[in-house]
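FYI - complex with magnesium ion, inputs then prediction.
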Amino acid sequence: MNHIEKYATLLDDAALNAQEVEQFDKDSTLSLGDAYAIQAASIKLRLERGEHRVGVKMGFTSRAKMIQMGLSDVIWGRLTNQMRVAEGGAVEHSRYVHPRVEPEIAFLLKKPLVGNISNAEALAAVEAIAPALEIIDSRYKDFRFTLPEVIADNASSSGFVIGDWASQKIDFSNLGMVLSIDGEVKQVGSTAALLGNPVRSLVAAARLAADAGEPLETGSIVMAGGATSAEWFFPGQYVSVDVQKLGRASFHVSA
Ligand code: OOG
Ligand code: MG
């Protein structure tokens, strides 16, 4: 087994068993290419178990997230059907190591988006937009990692909830977002926090996915990234995001 497969298996096992692992590249010696190769190999293990790809997630697209995690490069990860939680559904806390939640918006594509595209081309490919929550769960001890490590760990992806799809005709460039836990406001932000306009997150997703040889297809979901810092959540809680004009995405937390 080479080191790509070794780390892919380590991280996949950690996710499957909700078991944290030690950081293995504290000095950032892995190239970003190798880090993405580990991510791809770990996703392959999921696909071999019958999961299928449904889209991509973007990470570190807001300053709040960059500051919270101390990293400033935009990253991406792969989403599978198994990670999706039904709107208003239950999230089992014990299935994760130390999960956090972020307020996001999601895009649904009606056309493929490949390579270097303009904002206008990206917009023209959007079928619908929705309020969304991302559940991130770093597999690393203490939720601490270097850039290659978080990339290898599929950008901490572990779950996502998408509210009702809304018309792509709504101007989503600057919509207020409120993340609440048990009705208490925890984070307030705007979609404008995402690279100045979330459409740029979609443009970046199209480029990065195509560079990896896995261009965004019709029907793909793209999670644009957390607009604020992430929040911890715990069993018994109700987590929601309200996005101006788009509505709500939410989940309940069970043990
Ligand atoms: C990495 C994932 C970042 C986002 O929306 O910025 C991310 C992490 O913070 O664990 O999902
Ligand atoms: Mg996120």
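The two ends are 36 Å apart (CA to CA). The pocket of magnesium ion (ligand 2) is lined by residues 57, 59, 102, 104, 134, 136, 225-226 (CB under 6 Å).
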